[in-house]
Batch of 3 targets.
Target 1
Amino acid sequence: MTVTILAIESSCDDTSVAVIRDGCVLSNLIANQDIHMSYGGVVPELASRAHQSNIVPVTHKAIIQSGIKTEEINAVAFTRGPGLLGSLLVGTSFAKGFALALDVPLIEVNHLQAHVLSHFILEKDKETRLPSFPFLCLLVSGGHTRIIVMKSHMEMEVIGNTIDDAAGEAFDKCGKVMGLPYPAGPLIDKLASEGNPDAFSFAKPSVKGLDFSFSGLKTSFLYFLRDRLKEDPDFIEKNKTDLCASLQHVIVSILLSKLIKAAAQTGIKDIGIAGGVSANSALRNAMKEEAVKRNWNLFIPEFRYTTDNAAMIGITGYYKFLRGEFSDHSVTPLARY
Ligand code: KG4
Ligand code: ZN
């Protein structure tokens, strides 16, 4: 029997719908919300409204593009959390309605587990190298920065976490200070490619164990710019590429130093990155260099599976389907999972 999953992701500001058959992506559509750009961050109320307008047309297109008939769907998977409650409610209610109408099971998915399992997404006519367990993954997104050990598709142990801001937040908030639109991460990555990573230095936090902290970096970046702007009001404009490169350099080195420590502590060699910040070119390159040096079996996701997408919800839903892990229709979304 083939297993066809319709997957819905609506945890933050991307409305995404995918169709996955036996772990292989048939379609994966994402409607981004440009509306938040000028606000310097996601406005929850606007995000929920945009999901409400996008979810039906995106689902319609995803089904058409997949080439399947609606009756072939065996289950509906959706992001239960963590995320913005209003955004999650749109996807959850829609998934319930769809599952009920088709009389198929409903599958709740943890968004963070899905980011890690994005490494298991298969694609048509393409050979995919899959991680073995235990799999050590650095999950870096706009809301989370965690070091996770996956013992199986379903067993997840968090061994490192941020004690304040996430790595993506550090990119976005420092970008906002420089006057960049939200999300600043991709733009900083682009500008950094023309800058000098050693032009400015920012203090690295000292946090014990495998945990992270990024709020001090954000504050020191802010004070640094405030002082320089007093001397030269055009300081940011004149030094934008160097500022981006130096900021990116320190964020990547904070992330990498903890991941190296985690790899040494656990002895795990199958190592990957996931989440929106895993699209960062400096992080990807630094990971490749470390992998060669330390003999890691490295997993770097395709760009399309780094930021929020429904294909990762679908692959997680597929493994839950195989285990018969279904949800009751009384299930409610969780802002914190
Ligand atoms: O995983 P994601 O789409 O959403 C969350 O679950 O949070 O991650 C979004 C985050 C944003 O903070 C964005 O600035 C960051 O990922 N991001 C990047 C890059 N692409 C996305 N950060 C640095 N470099 C990039 N190329
Ligand atoms: Zn995410």
Target 2
Amino acid sequence: MNMDIVLGLQWGDEGKGKFIDLISESYDITARFNGGANAGHSIERNRKRITLKSLPSGIFMKNVQNVIGTGTVLDPVSFRKEILNLQLFDETVQPEKNLVISKKAHLVLPTHRLLDIFMEDHPDYTTIGTTRNGIAQAYSNKILRQNLRVCDIESVDFKSRVQQILQRDYRLLANGDMVLPSLEEISSEFFEAVEFLKKFTRTETEIFLNTALSEGKKILAEGSQAAMLDIDHGTYPYVTSSSTTAAGASSGLGVSPKKVGEIFGIAKAYCTRVGNGMFPTEIFDYLGEEIRKKGNEFGSNTGRPRRIGWLDLPALRYAIMINGVTQVILTKADVLSGMKSIEVCTHYELENGKIVSVSGTLPENARPVLKSMEGWGGDISSIEDASDLPDELKEFLSFLNSELGIPVTYLSIGPGRNQILKIKELELVK
Ligand code: GDP
Ligand code: IMO
Ligand code: MG
């Protein structure tokens, strides 16, 4: 049996949560492999919406085991709030029964969050526009081999090790002009949250997952963030601090690449990005504002307005290439409905006229070349059969299939659970 993977192909918030919610019922396990509370995956339940941060999107399914894997970073304080919020949202969820946490996942400590804010606001550092969840600080301490992991919460000297780190970090933080909470305040909140965390199963998730595979169970690996935010392959330094790619799924979960099956890449019909950094197809005029409003493009996690741009095919081809994506899931087609024409960046053109068709960065002095395509009219959000889609949208999907070399297999036409269509290539033929 294989492990399938769902990943974002742009700069995050492509609708991964919604798609995972749709397909997770046919898996035995959903496993997060990277990131932490910087993610915000929206799920609709009983016509209400919740945003999951560290929890896998299969958490509502009684028969699905959910794994917070080794490649993630876990903030006990944020985790506790998330679980309490989840239980308020739906009292039937039982995370004590269907959630397993890797003992090797790294902890986000209270000072990681404070240092994130400190660095974002301090003129000596590059401002990334982070979610201020202490993600980079937890991962950098992991790489420095100075961090604590979930397994450490059992050790007798855990409290003193935490206190030592908090005091050390406070000495650093004292160099800024941040108003800091008292050390007692943040440590008591943290230790309370750690006690709460102890109610959940903690194990060697690598063994849990590989045993499940050998028993014929199906795993869905859930990516957070996206290809263009990957620490190695994204638009550095304006990236997150984890491996967001298919290779990151293998490494973050300890499951061999040999076991990977389908790789679902999620992309919007346009692009968005929150935070700073390169965005070649960004729209600066009123149209961007219109799309932002219609698509409700405000960060699920931080509420920040998302920047809007046209679909960027060189970046999308790059994301498909580095991940080995086998199917594309295109979301938010409904948001572009009613526009007379839409634009797509087909390639970048260098100063000397050379064409770049696959790239994760806009080469120096290059310009994105936009192709104008006929828009589609009407309200597509209640269409139930792909054959009923407007011809212009079918044209757009066929165009993408040939430009990307792999098929768009699902089209999402609204935020609702059922607003998604399975696309068969035949249906695209007029
Ligand atoms: P994720 O981080 O990739 O899981 O995506 P987010 O949940 O952060 O952001 C996607 C947003 O778009 C959420 O508010 C979803 O409810 C919404 N959404 C998902 N698919 C569609 C779609 O096809 N159309 C519209 N209008 N909204 C969608
Ligand atoms: P999901 O999983 C969109 C962005 C931040 C910032 C950069 C670094 O919901 O798609 P970090 O807090 O990770 O150090 O911030 O990455 N970012 C996201 N953007 N969706 C996300 O997650 C993101 N997680 C981080 O805005 O630009
Ligand atoms: Mg999101």
Target 3
Amino acid sequence: MPRRSLLSGPVQYLKGVGPRRAERLAQMNIQTGRDLLYHLPHRYEDATTVDTISSLGPGDDATVIGTVVSKGVIPTRRRLRVFRVVLRDDTGQIECSWPGQPWLDRTIARGDRLLVSGPVRFFHGRQIQPREHTVLSREGETEDAGDPRAASADGQVFPVYPATEGLTHRQVRGIVDENLDALITDLAERDSLPESWRDELTLPDLAGALETLHRPPSLDAIEPARRRLAFEELFYLQLLHARARARLRRDVEGIAFVAADELTRGLLDALPFELTGAQSRVWNEIRDEMQTPVPMNRLLQGDVGSGKTVVAALAMLKAVESGHQAVLMAPTELLAEQHMRTLTDLLEPLGPKPVLLTGSVTGKARQYALQRIESGEAAIVVGTHALIQDTVEFHSLGIAIVDEQHRFGVEQRRRLREMGGCADALVMSATPIPRSLALVLYGDLDLSVIDEMPPGRKPVVTGVRGPDSREAAFDFLRSQLEEGRQAYVVYPIIEESEVLEVRAATSMHEQLSKRFADFEVGLLHGRLKSAEKDEVMRRFLAGDVSVLVATTVIEVGIDVPNATVMFIEDAERFGLAQLHQLRGRVGRGADQSYCVAFQSGNAPSERLSAFASTNDGFRLAEEDLRIRGQGDLFGKDQSGIATLRFADLERDRRLLDEARNRARRIVADDPELSGSEHAEIRRELEERYAGREALYQIG
Ligand code: ADP
Ligand code: MG
């Protein structure tokens, strides 16, 4: 009988683990030997350049290792409590102090061997104020006895592991250290990446990379090893995406739309403007793909106002001129109605008469619409997402377009495909996300990007204001109203309480109704019935309401060209993407528009400064990624498939492209990975995504 491998076996049977610790490791998702091998340090302490305590002088930046000989919390006159220890090594002793961190008294004990780094200053003697500290070992902690490295960290890069309740980072390190050699031997020189690739990309082999990350010989050795794991992670995710894409193409016979170009030409000729370069490029991408029998599954990204609607209209006409129907779905009724107006204006002169189908279309009108859709007389249908999903039968649907889809999961994408049958699918998003993130989250879709604005747009002037400049801002608002313009005043969603949020908006509405008694001030929030909401919105659209006080219900897609002022209250509560969406509600007409973000303090935050500094949604998206970090962004991916542990979307952009190209190439040659040269890759893919690949069984 073959010995059960340490890698796939339960972690419990590894050295130094046992049932109790296995339970704690499980809390960190470590179930098997393999999980433990991939449980990597989250930071490293550089002990290769340890200073002797006697050599330190004020002004030095020190790294020392010593034993805690005494400790205590000392109150100061300013009621600040300071945690202090005295640290001793073979050469002498020094005080370390942590102002305002009395709780460290519970985590650091006398007798601990401590590594600290930080500046040395003179304060009743020499003193270090540690930037970082790590407990290397603890007196009487027998668990570490088997780990000789803990005793003398000096001369090493010291790995610090993610720990959990009841299991310290030192204990985790002890467990890893004791089992590392055996686990690596168990890999038996198998590698999830072909050797030729490793050579081409100058990446270390798997065993070497893992060993380096657990026991780095120097700080410099860490990055190449991380890149190796990052590439591996990106490659397998891209392979999953590429396979989903290939399966759809294999299983679904799409429609090859004819290259008649009568209606689309007609629309292009009738437009009062030329397409921008980006619109033309994107339209060509879509058109070319529509003319092949491959089922389209595409994401169209473009900033607010970049002109996605025209591109959608062209794609719809393309389907119609080939004898099929087209549907455009919006997230709200209001938006659907707006699209209905735009498309009717654009398309009616060319023949097709769009049909609207929303929850408000009822009775006879609804029957009539449904019947025309089923018979195929209605070539172009506009509606809301939900409706189209369950009740409507199309005669011959050619393309399904979804507008303003900010974030959508694998599951939603699957439903869209099922609904469309063999129809092409185009999803439009006005929330730009960095390309790297799009490839990771939506790598199974093809990507078209409109990265250019129509000419002649006046960028919205954006300011950030603190409490001191509120009055002046509202005076300015009045001057705009007096010129006949309209304005939005928006309140953020208050997560804890919709009541609070409604109250904030309501009291502002009262206040502004008094202040601007000579104008009509409207109120819009989530507690209103949808008929009431629509009523307020319609009056704002018609210009009867001058100021609209609203919670974020107005966020998506509404187009009121005469609105030139966007005030955003408590702007710190919004993400950059949301702020940018809100700003996109103004700047839609000929007049100069303004956006003011109000914050509680007078000094602008990093995020709000970034917001004010550019009107470019893609740049803001990159900035958002930088400020928030990718972890925050992945939190929204419910499938959990696209969670990256090693790759960094900013640093590893080139690796990502490399991974994607290689994944697509392999799938093009051997979609089922059945060739013997792909056996290892196939095995690894199955191991990584066991059970989850089903989510991608689309089409
Ligand atoms: P979004 O991408 O936000 O959906 P829209 O499609 O609503 O943007 O377009 C915003 C406005 O820009 C519309 O009024 C549209 O008519 C106009 N527009 C679109 N393309 C161009 C262009 N190439 N030149 C000038 N104006 C354009
Ligand atoms: Mg739009």
